Structure formats: structure tokens, C-alpha cells
Amino acid sequence: MKSSFLVVALLLLCSISAGAQTRGEDGKWYDSNLTFQVSEETVREDGAFTLCVAQKKEKRCVENLFTPFVVRVYNASGKEIWNGQYTGMVPFVVFKKALPEAAKMEIVSQKNFVINVLSGTRIYTGAPLRMTYTF
Predict the structure, then answer these.
(1) pLDDT score for 2
(2) Which one has a higher pLDDT value, 64 or 18?
(3) How far out from the chain centre does Cα 67 lie?
(4) Which of 41, 94, 102, 121 is the most exposed place for a label (fewest CB within 10 A)?
(5) Whole-prediction pTM
(6) For the chain, how big is the Rg over CA atoms in Å?
(7) Which CATH number is 11's domain given?
(8) Is residue 96 packed enough to be buried (19+ CB in 10 Å), middle (13-18) or exposed (0-12)?
(9) Do residues 70 and 84 lie in contact, with contact meaning Cβ atoms separated by under 8 Å?
(10) Mind listing the pLDDT tens digit for each residue in 6-52?
(11) What is residue 20's predicted lDDT score, i.e. its pLDDT?
(12) DSSP string, the chain
């Protein structure tokens, strides 16, 4: 009984923290208030950064959401110096080396949805999430 209550409370909390999701007529969940957010970054020094799916308005990470994404890093002249694909299941991205010449990083999700880790539910975002981060 106690564990059932805990599961229900946890699911309720996760659905509240996931943002302004709405259920469409097709039965799918939708949320156009999501974006990427870089919370920590040491790409030039260590080749690492932390990325999350966040609510646009509140600028707050939603810890139970993920999506696969591609990262492209460019130098000041616009030449691509790094690219890679990531699952998004872990928030930390570590490149094989530091990129001291990095000037800009583009991050684009590979899908037009994010996934709720706890329920496995897809939440459609309307278009792939996209962000440009300038160093």
C-alpha cells in the first residue's frame, strides 16, 4: 500500500514538473514550451558541458526528459571542428579533447519529441529542439 502511494505521488510530481503538456485529439502528448539548456560548460578547457531539456519560460531543467541529439562545434571562422551524436540519456557530454578554439556550438535533437524517462511516453515538440551556444 505504501509503495503504491509512493509510485502514484512520484508520477504525479513528474507530470507536474514536465510542464504544460497537452493531449491532442490523436492521443499523443504535446509540449511546445521545451528547449535545450546548457547548465555548465567547460568546452574550451576540458571539452565538456551539461545539457538538459528545459522549459522555455521558466528556464528550468526538466530532469525526467531526454532526446537524442547532434552537437556541432565551430571555430571563429565558421569551420566545423567537432561533431558527434549523443543519446541524451545522460546530461554530461565529454569530448575526447578540449576545444580551445571553439566559438559556437549548435545542438539539434534528432527527433521531434522528447521521452519521459519514468513513463516512456513520447512528448511531441512540433519540431526538433535546436540551440546555438556562443562561447
Answers:
(1) 57
(2) 64
(3) 6
(4) 94
(5) 0.81
(6) 17
(7) 2.60.40
(8) exposed
(9) yes
(10) 444 444 444 444 457 888 788 899 999 999 999 999 999 999 999 99
(11) 73
(12) -HHHHHHHHHHHHHHHHT-S-EE-TTS-EE-SSEEEEEEEE-HHHHSEEEEEEEETTTTEE-TTEE--EEEEEEETTS-EEEEEEE-SSSSEEE-SS--TTEEEEEEEESSSEEEETTT--EEE-SS--EEEEE-
Written as nine digits, the cell of 18 is 514536465
Count the domains in the chain.
1
Tell me how long the chain is: 135
Return phi, psi of residue 68, to 5°.
Answer: -70, 150
- Which cell numbers in the block locate residue 67? 532526446
The cell for 38 is 546548457
